[in-house]
Amino acid sequence: MTEPVRRDATDRCPGVFTTHVAADGAVARVRLPGGRIRPDQLETLAQAAAAHGDGYLELTARANLQLRGLTDVDAVADAVIKAGLAPSSTHDKVRNIEVSPLTGRIGGIADVRPLADLLDDRLQAADVSASLSGRFLFGLDDGRGDIARREPDVCAIVRSAAVPGEIVADVLVGGAVLGSARGDETVATELLAVAADMIDICHGAWRVADLAETERTELDDRVRARLAPAVGGPTPQPPTSQPPTSQPPASQPPDPIVGWFDQDDGGVLLGAVVELARLPARLAEFVAAVQAPIVVTPDREILICDLDEGVAETVVRVLAPMGLIFDAASPWAAVSCCVGAPGCAKALAPVRDDLLVRIRDGEPVTEREHWVGCGRRCGSPSGPHRSVEATPDGGYVTHRR
Question: Is there a single domain that holds both residue 102 and residue 236?
């Protein structure tokens, strides 16, 4: 029988108004629902990181941005608020919404960006959602299976969009399909209802996986009672982001989303990564200067969207020498790590330094790797990967996850 997990009321996830104090200074995490950020907002964060932090923007495994080594937390919070990136102090940490990064541009059954905006608005307006843990995760999958396979706490995966503007989506809780809902308004309502149900059933739970077996059964029963029968059957678990057969033909890139891609509307999307998933503030300012929509993905990629070919060529020519990596074969498209020592007091090794040595002098990277300084495994990818964990003797041990 599954035992319940009872946790402290505070989950210690950093936000903008509640930062985490690390060995290298305060850490603030800026939630980007769907990973989307405007150029002016990125420029503001870059300037804040340069003026008050370590000069980098960290890309997280939930498609958010993080600032470390902050010396003036209030100044950073003020900048983030003015940029419109922290619209609610009471709901700042719960705006965890992962969205198919390519939605509305390449493939997918429907564009779920409007649904993401609606869900974010509803999440901030609901008093009960302020009680959610900063670890609770919403997912919106446009039908390709890329978000559903990450098993958010609650996820809507689009199954059809036969009527313009009216999607039909299956609702998944902890990876299990429990039923379906029709229309953005209904889908958003049902996703928030799942979160409210979890709080009601077990106020101390951070995530659905924390529930005891009887509590999970009660949650599933409540959700099924509200939903129509499921439409799409088993949740797709593709090894890459290839589209399901029910969606329209489209040019669909494989994982990772790194390189040059043709959008369905004829525009160009550029996908890139950076070393150690750390975007230097100066480089971030140059990305912002392109004046194009930007999407951060849960795989720590940076997508620069809606470009014409001439602008795209200029972006690659100018930003590649500055450190933006557009090569999908680069090891940095497949490796990630926690901060390690000395930035984290719990870390047993200087993970970043050791990973740099591994990339520059070691064996080729043939699978996704994540390097960590201790057993907490911060920032680990949601899917299968090779976990390289520091040990007290100064070495590393490898686990398959």
Answer: yes
* Distance from C-alpha of 332 to C-alpha of 305, rounded to nearest angstrom: 21
Single residue among 216, 249, 282 that ends a domain in this structure:
249
In which element (H, E) is residue 22 found?
strand 20-22
Q: Is 280 helix (H, G, I), strand (E, B) or coil?
A: strand
Tell whether 129 is covered by a domain.
Answer: yes
Q: Quick one: 225 and 108 in the same domain?
A: yes
Structure token pair of residue 129: 């959602």
Domain boundaries, position 213 = 94-249
Structural contact between residues 156 and 171, judged by C-beta atoms closer than 8 angstroms: yes
**Alpha carbon separation from 165 to 63, 112, 115, 185 (Å, rounded):** 26, 10, 10, 11
**310 CB neighbour count, 10 Å cutoff:** 9
Residue 369 lies in a domain: yes
Out of 201, 224, 249, a domain closes at: 249
From first to last of its 401 residues, what are the pLDDT tens digits of the chain? 455 555 554 566 899 988 988 989 999 999 999 999 999 999 999 999 999 999 999 999 999 999 999 999 999 999 999 999 998 777 889 999 999 999 999 999 999 999 999 999 999 999 888 899 999 999 999 999 999 999 999 999 999 997 777 899 999 999 999 999 999 999 999 999 999 999 999 998 999 999 999 999 999 999 999 999 999 866 545 434 333 333 433 344 458 999 999 999 999 999 999 999 999 999 999 999 999 999 999 999 999 999 999 999 999 999 999 999 999 999 999 999 999 999 999 999 999 999 999 999 878 999 999 999 999 999 999 889 999 999 999 899 999 98
Total domain count, the chain: 2
Beta strands in 126-266 (DSSP E): 138-141, 154-163, 166-173, 176-182, 259-262
Cα separation of 191 and 181, whole Å? 10
- Residue 158, domain CATH: 3.30.413.10
Three-class SS state of 234? coil
Distance CA 209, CA 234 (A): 19
For residue 265, what are the CA distances in angstroms to 34, 112, 245, 301, 309?
20, 16, 21, 22, 13
Which pTM does this prediction carry? 0.92
